[in-house]
Amino acid sequence: MRRDHPVPPLADVSPESWREANRRLLAKTLSEFAFEDLIKPVELGEDRYRVDLDSGVSYVFAATQGALGSWRADKDSVTRGAAGLLGNEIETPAWDVQQFLVDCADTIGTDAPTLGLYLTELSSTLAVDAARIEHGGATAAELSELGHAELECHMTGHPTLAANKGRIGFSAADVRAYAPESQQIVPLQWIAVHRGLAEFRGTSELSEQGVIAHELDDDTVAAFRARVEAVGGDPDAYVWMPVHPWQWDHAVQVLYAGEVAQNRIVPLGESDDGYLPQQSVRTMTNLVRRDRYDVKLPLKIVNTLIWRGIPPHCTQGAPVATQWLTGLLDRDPVLRDELRTVFLGEIASVTVRHPYLDRVPDMPYQHLEALGCIWRQSVSSRQDEGERVRTFASLLHVDENGTAFAAELARKSGLSPQEWLSRLFATVLDPVLHVMYTYGITFNPHGQNTLIGFDADDVPRRLFLKDFVDDVSVTHTPVPERGPEPDGYDHVLPRKKPEVIRQHVIDQLLFGHFRYLAPLMEDQLGVKEGEFWGLVREAVLAYHARFPEKAERFAEFDMLADEFPRYPFNTDRLVITRYVDRALRHALRPNGTVANPLA
């Protein structure tokens, strides 16, 4: 393994690739802004629409509309109209998404400081997208042969957010060194943090020394102990933990400079393992020892709406939440024996609080989440021989030849498109619905937290779920099946109304995934959008038919309601939250409703 971790050279990007990346992102931005009602396209006829902006500029484009209020703008159809020297309107082909944001700023109600940072995020996103276009990337067929961690490096980011690879805080060199698309192996720095600052927690079967023995070999442990002793410390008086090399350089040695100077934090050196970052950037998968844990590490960067630290209540609560959830759900015969659902537990953690900032009321959360770690069971440690595990998000990927990854897998399976989709929907929905209806619990099953195990023929077979802290909620109403619940962990296991619990499923599966998968399946497999949603409905009804005794729960978490609230992710960044420092992460608010295609 490389020890000097060289930064790869800057990818050459041609003007043509830059414009094509812009055309794609402009079409996505028009589509998502129209979906969120940030802009109001007026129909011109023949599937063409016009948006008139307060700046005096107009955009015209061809688009189709689909279920759940979705829009799909044609990237090659967009024109921009603006007044010429003689006062007449001149229309020219439009490709520049940053120009569009400047044009529509007053219309959508954003301000200059927000727009400045948002354009930074857009430019960063475009740079990555343009490099991928320039150099082609792997085909869908090639991607189908990759393992879970390697496949993650080929994904293109959040389907809803326009600026989905902003990573404010990373330099261009940092992106080339640490972003998943760079496919660079990253060694992790280890540090020893004095027990006055740090606290280890683990599930009942895991001791602190057990985690160290699992993650480090004997020679490395001996070398690390010697480094603590060399500064006059007792190695057992410290909690050992990994830290991301970028975070060590840019945050820990700055925020915790006094603790480093006083040997309350002792740098131990790198371990011998190498890691690949997942799409979240801060979660790392071990490539050298696949049986070792994934590691979730804070990064003091802004990406996809929030600072990417780890809250102390999450590090403290992760093992407790894992112990309770896996103890509850692993005893369920439907989940355990029939569906064979895998819950990738967050089994150990280290919490480190700042000795001064932590005492200040209303301190912005970015300063309090700079140091800590969570160890999670890896996919490799739980998958069957011959089983392929891929994130749910990967099914939305389209290669540079225009082939959708989901369509490639469906064709390889030998099944009809309808049968393959039915298997997919049952695989995803059965465990998620079972947990919600039976226990009043929901995960946040978005494309990265939800993984699918495929058999040797690329047929979906079972679900893997992860992220048990910050992304699990329980109903505030009593549910006898849940049994005794952990006390004092409302930050980790927040209590919510049943309709809000349901909304996690709706937002992540229907809005966040199926809304995009449906048109891909129509374009590439010939499954009409109405038929697609009919198959999703059949999967829900099949579960209902099997467990009629849960009829009251079906009504409580009504998946077949006439309409659902719409949550505006891009609007939240540009208009509501902006980039204001906050003491806590906030909850999104809905803006309107859309018809439910399952009704």
Comma- or semicolon-separated keywords:
TATA-Binding Protein, Transferase(Phosphotransferase), domain 1, 6-stranded antiparallel β-sheet, 599 residues, globular, alpha+beta
Estimate percent helicity: 25-40%
The number of domains is: 3
CA radius of gyration: 24 Å
Could you give the distance between the termini?
A: 54 Å
Rounded mean pLDDT score: 94
Sequence stretches where pLDDT stays below 50 over 5 or more residues:
none
Shape, please? Answer: globular
Overview of the molecule:
The model has no long low-confidence stretch (mean pLDDT 94). It is globular and about 80 Å long. The chain has three domains: 15-136, TATA-Binding Protein, CATH 3.30.310.280; 172-376, no CATH class; 388-595, Transferase(Phosphotransferase), domain 1, CATH 1.10.510.40. It starts with 14 loop residues before the first helix and ends with a strand. Helices cover 38% and strands 18% of the residues. The longest helix has 28 residues, at 498-525. The chain is of the alpha+beta class. Strands 1, 2, 3, 4, 5 and 6 form a six-stranded antiparallel beta sheet that branches.
